[in-house]
Amino acid sequence: MSGQSIPRPAAATIVVDEVGLETGVYGAYRLRTVYQPIFRVASDFLMPEGLEASVLPLLNFRPIERHEFLASVDLDAQADVLSLCNLMHIGNRRHARHDNLSLHVPFGHSLLCEEVALEHLALTFARLAEAGFPPRSLVCSVPNFETCDLNVLERILAVLGAAGAGLAVEGFGVNTQAIEAIKRFQPRIVSVDGSWFRRVSDVSAALRLMRQVIESLKNGGAEVLVKGLESPAHLLAALTVGADLVQGELLARPEEAGSIVDVRPLDIGRIFRDPETVVVSLT
Fold it and tell me: How does DSSP classify residue 279?
């Protein structure tokens, strides 16, 4: 299969190597899939729940920042390139060797809020079927809704819901419009921004308020994912405010597709036996 190309979308292509690993090609860039595990809080353990996919752009074989790569993509090609990345993430999922886990893929504005969204969503579902994964295994992560065409967005969400795919609202904590969007569109998951959460993780008053907000979100049917955990103190804060799902380099580092992603249950007690743990009290 070396050199074989999957001819979609038109602005870029996917090249498949001899072992079936997929790489995106856009001009001089090579695009790789990276997965980071997401864990569910279950009593004394963190149980593997999903894999979050992201793109690792390479230029002259050197990694560059995602925002730097996207800034170099022509505006009229961005939807195609982002869609191609998601198709690549789905195709590479079998190399992660954890077919039972959900797959979280990023759906930016152009893939969810504009008229071309239905076309790209159809490509996504076709790719899932081609790879042998059901639509219910997919979670579409969306950074914001406030600039969307609401009529288009509602049609997209209706298609997602009918197929059984999930919706995750990203950026909770830094996106001031998130609460209204959550009330209106009732996502499956609300993701708390990691950099914001780390800043407030040792502020008792902020955590007390956040615990109340999270309880309200959960009463409305959403699960709460806290991202960006880098220390036992961050994990303790996430557990204290009632997170359902957690993610971060403390628990598992992102790995390129083709690497063996080590996704095993984690003993919470072992994490907290780190002598540097800082206890955050909400009393």
Answer: P
Q: Which of 60-64, 113-117, 123-127, 131-135 has the lowest mean pLDDT?
A: 113-117
**190 falls within a domain:** yes
Pair 24, 14: CB distance under 8 Å: yes
How far are the Cα atoms of 52, 121, 240 from residue 185, in angstroms, in the given order?
21, 18, 27
Q: Are 64 and 226 in contact (CB under 8 A)?
A: no
Residue 162 falls within a domain, yes or no?
A: yes
Tell whether 239 is covered by a domain: yes
* Residue type for position 30: R
- DSSP three-state, residue 41: strand
CATH number of the domain enclosing 210: 3.20.20.450
> Distances from the Cα of 171 to the Cαs of 62, 156, 196, 274, in angstroms?
28, 20, 9, 29
- Phi/psi of residue 256, each to 5°? -65, 145
Query: Does residue 27 belong to any structural domain of this protein?
Result: no
Number of domains within the chain:
1
Instruction: Count CA atoms within 13 Å of residue 115 on its CB side.
Output: 0
Distance separating alpha carbons of residues 98 and 119, to the nearest angstrom: 28
> Which H or E run includes 76?
none
What does residue 199 show for φ and ψ, rounded to 5 degrees?
A: -70, -30
The answer to whether residue 8 scores a pLDDT higher than 60 is: no
CA 233 – CA 239 distance, rounded (Å): 10
Range of the domain at 53: 33-58+77-272
Q: By three-state DSSP, how is residue 240 classified?
A: helix
pLDDT in tens, 214-268: 999 999 899 999 999 999 999 999 999 999 999 999 999 999 998 877 788 999 9
H-assigned helices in the chain: 66-72, 78-92, 109-112, 117-131, 150-163, 178-185, 194-200, 204-219, 232-240, 268-272
